[in-house]
Design goal:
Rossmann fold, amino-acid biosynthesis, alpha/beta, five-stranded parallel beta sheet, N-succinylornithine carbamoyltransferase, Asp/Orn_carbamoyltranf_P-bd, transferase, binds N~2~-(3-carboxypropanoyl)-L-ornithine, binds phosphoric acid mono(formamide)ester, ArgF'-like
Length: 349
């Protein structure tokens, strides 16, 4: 793998999930693969999980790691071509990225959207220029429109925790959610007793306009997983918060949270701002925060969130502190997702 920027860069998602789980079982099985290779992690924005999990993943593979907090410690970067740099920017991305490529065998980049110009963000102008000028393989650490390491960790977490259902006939309505014909068994052949998990991406309230990167990416990965027969995927959001539709092929879309989460096995909670009214903080209706009352509508669903999460604004503390929360487990799996991706890149260096 030369680029990991979206699910489209992955040939076989099942194989990548299996690789992450194999690395979880044997973290040091490939500890010589990255010997004398250097990973550079470049941050234009803050991070806790991505920074630490990717660094640890590289160390487990025997790599050296350098971290550059470009936003705080680097020169102010110019990204536009054809400008006379007589203002505040000191160094052009053409030189900065190329120089980092001289020191590193693989680079990671975190570059959030500015949420000012939708075309600029959705064209991934900054990320793509970095890839073009650095000249080495690049892994996205969350770009303007996607967060693929997070989504891979999320798919790993769902795959790992999904428990067989002993008696699917107890789950009224599940056959409907799987789009099965009447009388058709909801169990994939050869996997007796096991149905597909119903996964719901559920919009949550926030006080700021946040990027669509996490939900776009989660949706893209879940739609691919759904197409491969791994799960059943629904998105719930208030009117006006629809994601750009190229990220959601085949997803069921609902504007009613209670209906969408009925019988859900996983609820993935996340705020995002409007794609249509780009960068604006829109009014939203009451009743979109997941709490124990809402959880009671689900099939005792596991609740996920990429973190950081604002307690009792986006997601109720009673869920985060309760037995249904998967958020720490999910964050732990960021390590194995990153290690699987770095391993695939190292194998092709
Ligand atoms: N990397 C994980 C998510 C990052 C970002 N969250 C944030 O910016 C939270 C900011 C706040 O809560 O003030 C997002 O939603 O895309
Ligand atoms: N989930 C996630 O990417 O967390 P950080 O922003 O802390 O890296």
């Amino acid at each position: 793998m030369k680029l990991f920027s979206s699910v489209h860069d992955v040939q076989d998602i099942k194989q990548l999930v299996a690789s992450a789980l194999a690395l979880k079982a044997s973290p040091y099985a490939h500890s010589d693969l990255g010997k004398n290779k250097t990973l550079g992690l470049v941050f234009m924005n803050p991070s806790l999980r991505t920074r630490l999990s990717t660094q640890k993943a590289a160390l487990n593979l025997g790599m050296n790691v350098m971290v550059m907090n470009m936003d705080k410690e680097g020169w102010a970067l110019e990204t536009q071509d054809g400008v006379i740099m007589n203002g505040t920017t000191v160094e052009h991305i053409r030189e900065a990225a190329a120089v980092m490529g001289e020191y590193c065998d693989i680079l990671g980049l975190r570059s959030f959207p500015k949420l000012q110009n939708r075309d600029e963000d959705y064209n991934e102008e900054f990320f793509n220029k970095f890839v073009k000028f650095c000249g080495v393989p690049v892994v996205s650490l969350e770009s303007a429109t996607r967060h693929p390491l997070q989504s891979l960790a999320d798919l790993v977490t769902i795959t790992e925790t999904w428990k067989p259902i002993p008696n699917p006939s107890q789950r009224e309505g599940s056959s409907k959610s799987l789009n099965l014909a009447e009388g058709e068994t909801p169990l994939p052949l050869g996997e007796a007793g096991r149905g597909l998990p119903k996964v719901v991406l559920a919009w949550a309230p926030h006080i700021k306009p946040l990027p669509q990167a996490v939900p776009n990416s989660f949706a893209e990965w879940m739609c691919k997983a759904q197409a491969e027969g791994m799960l059943d995927f629904t998105i719930a959001q208030p009117e006006g918060f629809e994601l750009e539709e190229s990220f959601t092929p085949g997803a069921k879309i609902s504007h009613n949270l209670d209906e969408a989460i009925a019988d859900a096995d996983y609820v993935y909670v996340k705020n995002w701002s409007s794609y249509k009214e780009y960068g604006k903080l829109l009014d939203f209706p009451e009743g979109w925060m997941m709490n124990n009352k809402k959880l009671s509508l689900t099939n005792n669903a596991k609740v996920m969130h990429c973190l950081p999460v604002r307690r009792d604004l986006e997601l109720a503390s009673e869920i985060l502190d309760g037995p249904n929360s998967l958020v720490i487990h999910e964050a732990g799996n960021r390590l194995w997702a990153a290690q699987a991706v770095l391993k695939a890149m190292l194998e092709e260096l």
